[in-house]
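Continuing the series of single-chain predictions for the mutant panel. This is the parent chain; the variants come on the following pages.
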Amino acid sequence: MIDLFRPYMSDRARANALDVLTPSPDGRLFIGEGERVAEFERRFAAFVAAPRPVLALNSCTSAIDLALHLCGVCPGDEVITTPMTCSATNTHIVLRGAVPVWADVDPITGLIDPSDVARKVTADTAAIIAVDWAGRACDYAALRSISDSVPVIQDAAHSLGGAVGGDYVCWSFQAIKHLTTGDGGALLAPEWDYDRARLLRWYGLDRTQGESFRCSQNIREVGFKYHMNDIAAAIGLGNLLDMPTILDRHRSNAELYHGLLAGTPGVTLPPHDPRASWWLYTVLTDDRDSLMAYLAARGVASSPVHTRNDKHAAFHYPRGPLPGVDAFAARELAIPVGWWLSADDIRTVAGHVREWAMAQRMAAV
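Parent structure:
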């Protein structure tokens, strides 16, 4: 089977985790948020060239919710967002009592359409969420120029190593992402919100203020239990060193697909983008189910990965026409592109896609 996803776990990450889980000679063991989390934050910020310190959290979902909180999203507010994403992107809009306002996407890339976002901004708009589908960055210059008073939250769950473009940036270290900590996430907040975010991730308490901080501090704003722990950070530190190689493999595999699949009838390729991290390689076809079945019969996994959120009963809010979403959601299919695949594997998958396309063409004659 040629897998669509695999978790990457280095020997170094396993050794780091074992080190955290091994008591000291006097029997002491520390596995909570400690120095390894702080070290991971420093090294990750350097890796993504973050202009400010980042905060390590227990998931990207927590990062998005914390960003929504920092943006002041309240019941009745509107948050303009894309339906083409994991449902976790939009879950906390609803849980906060706010209303997701669905924006259209580009029918080829799946990225949110800034012109449609601009049309949907109202006096009730509290934030915009944009998702870097498959590892390709949205047009953050256009999104941030829409309104000086509406912050842009960048869901960078797919785009490790991509451009930092939002006012708030949320990364994922979930099991099958480029970089995993087992599960986890990180938030880059504006400079003026950093200290507030740091406190809110741990109930509103300042963990830097000594041993008795739980008992001696006055909580001024109720927070969350969103922090990362040292076990996850140790895994992340071990895997982070290999991320240049992991990203290079994803990019080189995508580049190989671009050459091998160019001109394949009935298959539209994603636009070439050397800056994309290619967590997914998404092709478009009018007969997705047929291609999925053809690949599965030959031992190749494929999947749409995410379904449009506005079709879920939990997100059943009024929406206008979304022609880009309609076109993209019905046709998009991710084929394997990850670090575990050799050039021969990519040639095998591409060969099966071409064979299917030719069979479809012959059947239509």
